[in-house]
Amino acid sequence: MYRTLIHSACLADAQAERILAAIPGRLEPRDTHWLLRHDRPAERDAIEALRTSLRLDINPLPPGFDGAAVGLLVTDMDSTLIAIECIDEIADRAGQRRAVAAITEAAMNGELDFAQALQRRVALLEGLPVSVLEAVYDEKVALNPGAEALVAACRRRGVRIALVSGGFDFFVDRLKDELGLDFALANRLEARDGRLTGRIEGPICGGVEKAGFLLSLCGRLGLVPETCIGLGDGANDAKLLGVAGLGVGYRPKPVLRAIADAVIEYADLAAVADFLEDTR
């Protein structure tokens, strides 16, 4: 038996008919979404056509995935948990927003090597006072809609949450404390005499490191990757989503959308909690 989630609490009769015509099966209402049980696997093209025409997030679950067994959610920060790219906002204070944002976009689309792109962007921040980071956090950082509801749902189910980012620990550590998350990993901006040097201090946290963080946490917590969810939006999250039992793209770039197990395009982050329910 195959299972597909429709991430909407309300489903019009016409919408249900369209879905069942494309994927014959049995629809079951849940509190925040619908579960479709069907005997044959859903074709990816059919799912994409339904998503686009109905403007609904519709996600077949991998055959072996058990939402009730999930013990860890590992999520990206920039443009996933929060609505901005922190480095673009920092660069704005240096008059370098356009140059940095262009590199960010290319890196997130998989057009540039992430580590090299990060070093190029950070170099443009040289000389900025460290106080700029606090100003960006206070004035610009905002959670994406549904983030707090997702965190609360994980808490109710005993799911641990890790925040991992190719961005900076200044922001990641504050969000971890503010939201009461369990683990965090990110890059550290080097500073001297109260100003940024334009360099990263220590190893770079990129795509490989994000995936490695999930695997290391599995070892610490006595979990297996199949009981983890990876959540992200850009090319730098591909390896993270690849090692997780369920890889979820949130408003993903095309390069990530192509490999994600599930996509949240229309709903908010609270919809990720739908994957935590028992659908067996």
TrEMBL record:
What pathway is this protein a component of?
Amino-acid biosynthesis; L-serine biosynthesis; L-serine from 3-phospho-D-glycerate: step 3/3
**EC number(s) from the headed UniProt entry:** 3.1.3.3
Name the keywords, alphabetized.
Answer: Amino-acid biosynthesis, Hydrolase, Magnesium, Metal-binding, Serine biosynthesis
Q: Which residues form a coiled coil?
A: none
What Gene Ontology biological process does one annotation of this record name? L-serine biosynthetic process
Top-level class of the enzyme under EC nomenclature = hydrolase
Q: Which domain of life is it from?
A: Bacteria
What single Pfam family name could you report for this chain, choosing any that match?
A: HAD
Task: Give the cofactors, semicolon-separated.
Answer: Mg(2+)
Q: Which residues are the active-site ones?
A: 76, 78
Can you provide one Gene Ontology molecular function annotated for this UniProt record? Answer: magnesium ion binding
User: GO CC terms on record?
Assistant: cytoplasm
Q: Which reaction does it catalyse?
A: O-phospho-D-serine + H2O = D-serine + phosphate; O-phospho-L-serine + H2O = L-serine + phosphate
Q: Which family does it belong to?
A: Belongs to the HAD-like hydrolase superfamily. SerB family.
Record's protein name: Phosphoserine phosphatase
* Species assigned in the record: Methylococcus geothermalis
